[in-house]
User: What shape does this take?
Amino acid sequence: MAIKASEISDLIKSRIEKFQSTTEARNVGTVVTVTDGICRVHGLADARYGEMLEFPGNTFGLALNLEQDSVGAVVLGEYKHISEGDTVKTTNRILEVPVGPELLGRVVDALGQPLDGKGPIKASKQSPIERVAPGVVHRKSVSQPVQTGYKAVDSMVPIGRGQRELIIGDRQTGKTALAIDTIINQKGSGVKCIYVAIGQKQSSISNVVRKLEENGAMAHTIVVAASASVPASMQYIAPYSGCTMGEYFMDQGEDALIIYDDLTKQAWAYRQISLLLKRPPGREAYPGDVFYLHSRLLERSARVNEEYVEKTTGGKVKGKTGSLTGLPIIETQAGDVTAFVPTNVISITDGQIFLETDLFNAGIRPAMNAGISVSRVGGAAQTDIIKRLGGGIRLALAQYRELAAFSQFASDLDEATRKQIDRGQRVTEVMKQKQYAPLSVAEMALSIYAVNNGYMDKTERNKVVAFEAALLAFAGSDHAASIKSINEKPVLKEHEATLKKICEAFVATGAY
Amino acid sequence: MAEKTTIARPYAKAVFALAREQRKLDAWLNALALAATVVMHARVAPLLTNPRATAADLADLVNEIAGGELEVKGKDFFKVLATNRRLGYLPEIAAIFAHLKAESEKSVDVTVTSAVELSADQQKKLAAAVEKRLARTVRLHTKLDPALIGGAVLRADDLVIDGSLKGRLDRLENELTG
Assistant: This one.
């Protein structure tokens, strides 16, 4: 960006010309106290709840507590230069962030300002960060799938477009990995992704961005970063900003996916703000409205019908539905899902994926506990082929779990029981999947078909992963056309014979 | 500061209601202003927190100086304040009282800060314009601040109308740097 000196003066001249120098009448107040990013402002009698306040030095704040004589405000950004006695003005505006396709591929902060050094974002539209979720009449039920590319998730806890599916687990169980792989797998599907990082290490965020870039997923992704080093106010508003950016795509009749990583940290930031604002603490010292904090955010994930899209676009987009799929992440402490925030978010979302440390350490990755992970609405959106094949997986695993505990004590088992245990072990093996290796629907169907129909029964348990890899490689090279046709029309009835043929041909080669 | 007004408000409201019943708003305002000056006095202020000064003593002290125009009820008010150890809040009570009085009379204090001295004619024009905008009778106070360069800043309670050259330049600066 090289600019000549004369261009700069032209730029300034045009901006001065555009500047409207009118007398301004504004409501003002005086800063009484500044404590950890919270300002108590005397006066400001006309300030409204959630209004932006202007502090000196181009700093803005959010009016959060309206009291009899004063206003409690949280400063967005640096607050070190604000001192007692400073003048604060009302702005008659609520907080807005830039939205639009211009943001794709960028890393922005909670206010939509670029953090990636790629120059200013020329977004033409701004939208308020707090919006009411689409109403009942504007909604449509979930019917299209979001493919995560994970066999375990897509077969047992399918996610539909417009659904809210919670990813919950202790630290180091692969929550973020699951989310990032889902973003990577949206490449080419037309689903726009927003990754909101809240209270994370800067290094983790830059890792995520690098991985997305390496896998070519940045082009359809916006990263909203509110790292652990930014003030709590920014961490508090970051999910709402990200949601607004996602809603833009939903309103345009497109599909979007938003990941909040993670909402536990946002609740912590909000708790800090609330306690400093002297709001009464409740359970676990969270304020009274911590449920509403998350429910109003997650309610904005929705699938909207054609009329809604037509209305919001002013008739430009017709006959298309929009969706915003939400994947909130919650980090539990020592597997305690009965803590305040996890129970809240579990009750708000349409299902949850439980990731467990024990499974992770046992080498089962993704470390999903299939018994307690559910998807309440995703079944309606699952592809036919996976839905029909996946039923067998759930059953085999459920039976296996029951027998596995029992069989530890019994040395000699009858034939039927041993078969079930063997099958369960093989299914567990097949459900394992590496990071950054999402599978297509056809590949998934082939793996599941092979294990369901006993093609792996004769393989050693520790060779199952290799068998599967070889099978997929074989299908990819010798039966590429079949795989492609399954992906195009994933209906089991039409392709069952093909799957059988591939499996038999593969077993005949004996290449595993 | 905010906490102090919170404590002072019920007292101010009570005493305002009382004064209105007695139709002695002006007398009360003067008395409260005087009492506020008394308790703020450098030699009186320490007494308020002195445990050896009894409530009766303090009430008498204030009444002797400020309670002249008031009847028994006025003297009782200072006694109540003294027993509740709230005499220190008199400045805030007086301020809220003045505010309530202005509100009830539909009048407002407006401070005009200008770069140059305003002529009587200008003041009259300004007062008329502000009266129209706020729908209140206006008591105009003037202040001089050459730093404004030109124009004037009007302040009525929380409302500030900034028509100064300095304000415009500040906004231009914001526009160019922001």
Summary: The longest strand of chain A covers residues 24-35. The two ends of chain A are 56 Å apart (CA to CA). Residues 450 and 503 of chain A are 6 Å apart (CA to CA). Chain A is about 40% helix and 20% strand.
